[in-house]
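User: What would this chain look like folded?
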Amino acid sequence: MQNLPQTRLIVFDWDGTLFDSTGVIAYSLQSACEALGLAVPTIQEAKHVIGLGFNEAIEQLVGPVDAEQSAAFMTAYRRSYFAGESLVTLYDGILELLKGIQQQGRLMAVATGKSRAGLNRVLLDGQLRSYFDATRTADETASKPHPQMLLELLDELDVSPHQAVMVGDTTYDIDMAHAAGMASVAVKYGAHDEKLLLASNPTVVVRDVDTLAKVLGVQKALL
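Assistant: Here's the prediction, encoded as structure tokens.
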């Protein structure tokens, strides 16, 4: 297994990579479809769009929608998601991993399909903002798998692509990293299964947070 201990910058996806939220998100997408009288996707179909920007996710699930339908979908989705969000936590070992990386003096960033308001809320509620040197969300730049959010992060932090790695749980993360010229780590405990992830040819695939720490060169003593 290839290790990536020399990377200056580690960019994390949020949902399904740091935050154990894919189940709540998928259920909320189903609930929104049902509330609007649309065909209800399977859990697997709903999980498949996690990581995209909200508008891109809706279109992939139900087809093209106008602004009014999109707003109604967002309202129904948020109602369901907020009802279950209090039950969602970081994956076991993630906080220790972030602390270990920070102790090494390496840079960390977030590139997520969440909205800016949504990301700011979870960073504040979890007291996690201090771990990340920069963040990008899908509503302030191009949605994954377009590389724009990674290119903006690299530019902001003055890091070259070969000094950075993208860590994510979907093919959108891996494809985005390829497009930005970066290495990638696919975690298979999130939204997309291993077969799907492998099709995008990530640099490394890991099964759990402990293995992720080893690949990133974070010593177990720091965890």
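The mean pLDDT is 91. If you want, I can go into more detail on any region.
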